[in-house]
Amino acid sequence: MASSRVVGLFSIVLICITIAQGRKALNTNNEFSASSLVNNDDGICKSMVETQGYTCEEHKVTTSDGFILSIQRLPTRRSGEKANKPTVLIQHGLFQDAVVWLWNSPDESLAFILADNGFDVWIVNDRASRYSSHTSLTPNDQAYWEWSWEELANNDLPATVQYVYDHTGQKMHFVGDSQGSLMAFVAFSQGNLLNMTRSAAMLSPIAHMGRINSDATRLAAKLFLANYAYWLGIRQFLPNAAEGLMFLKHICDILGLDCVNLLTPFTGPNCCINSSRIDYYLEHEPQPTSTKNLIHYSQMIRTDTIARYDYGLLENLRRYGRVHPPNYELFAIPKDFHLFLGMGRLDMLADVEDVKFLLSYEFKNHDPNNLVQVLKENYAHADFIMSVTAKQDVYDPMIDFFNKQ
Ligand SMILES: *[C@@H]1O[C@H](CO)[C@@H](O)[C@H](O)[C@H]1NC(C)=O
Ligand SMILES: *[C@@H]1O[C@H](CO)[C@@H](O)[C@H](O)[C@H]1NC(C)=O
């Protein structure tokens, strides 16, 4: 059915916009900035964790390129009892921040569920999201947006894993959703972080993107590549700012989609989202990302590679000494590394066909005893973070997996 194919890379964004349009006239003024919504001093601990009766610590980690990432720790159960199980580090996906692990009720939200199961929980906020900052740059500087998922994998994730390891002295379990899983695959493929990690649970795992079935996502990729110079000039991609809206409307026009009605196909495929909480979600998300990051995804979708950023012939020669950017070799991830993959049949970004290809190619020889797969037939991309039944569907099996390591 055509409508279910629409849910893709930009689905969450489109939906957010759609709902926002239904809710009130959108302020498309470019002055809009995510940080205007919540005062940084309020912090995630104070506004989202302590209010639910949990202990919370705010931490800051500085990356090798100067980004100051905000990290929260939930070191106890709600009862106050200290964690007696290993550390879990949770890394969110594109257009999000750590809030997504806390925004349903404590019985439904992954960070609280893990804390109540006795884990020492750490949740990370990406560079350029609301609660992060930089040692010298501001969002008005071009250099603040000069990165893609490569820098997240090679700078941010190593900085956070090392920081948490230094604090706890313990190897940790890792949870990565969507872009968070890509970051970890890329880090692990280079042999990084494995000596500080017990296992990894990848939700909506992103590696190959060549088989994505969504017309909207493929078109977005095409448009970004065709106009990359223009988009690079914009640098910050905030979906609910003027350029982002214009771009997404353009996609809807070309595909003949009535974007106002996108909510219907969306709440269909995403089986289990609590629609009465949508306004609340929209107070927190989406967070901005860099245009360069979206162009890098577009390259992956078009070329079906997991490669470094493609700067074009001359700049590739200068930077990499070769015409095409080098690949990240996921073959190199150790065969006995403990992996959990949580997949949704209706996920149009982490397309099941792409994950199947990963399993049959790079992970062909992975020890089956160390590879747990949970495929939910009724799940789409957002269910892994928003579903009111994610606990029984995905988080409980994930916790069983952690408990076995
Ligand atoms: C992990 O390996 C890196 C080298 O790849 C090393 O610098 C680091 O000290 C190691 N950490 C632990 C905890 O073994
Ligand atoms: C859905 O959200 C509403 C409003 O926050 C809440 O009262 C209700 O308990 C939620 N339902 C579920 C199943 O989580």
Which properties best describe this structure?
single chain, 405 residues, alpha/beta, Rossmann fold, two-stranded antiparallel ribbon, 15 helices, 11 strands, disordered N terminus, binds 2-acetamido-2-deoxy-beta-D-glucopyranose, Lipase, lipid metabolism, hydrolase
Mind explaining what this structure looks like?
The chain has 405 residues and is an alpha/beta fold. The protein has one domain (36-214, 274-404): Rossmann fold (3-Layer(aba) Sandwich), CATH 3.40.50. It has 15 helices and eleven strands. Strands 1, 2, 3, 4, 5, 6, 7, 10 and 11 form a nine-stranded mixed beta sheet that branches. Strand 10 (338-344), helix 13 (352-360) and strand 11 (371-376) form a beta-alpha-beta unit. Helix 4 packs across helix 5 (179-189), helix 6 (215-226) packs across helix 8 and helix 6 crosses helix 11. The chain is globular, with a radius of gyration of 20 Å. Mean pLDDT is 85; it is low at 1-12, 14-40 and 261-268. Bound molecules: 2-acetamido-2-deoxy-beta-D-glucopyranose (NAG) (2 copies). One 2-acetamido-2-deoxy-beta-D-glucopyranose (NAG) binds next to loops.
Task: Write a brief structural summary.
With 405 residues, this protein is an alpha/beta fold. It has 15 helices and eleven strands.
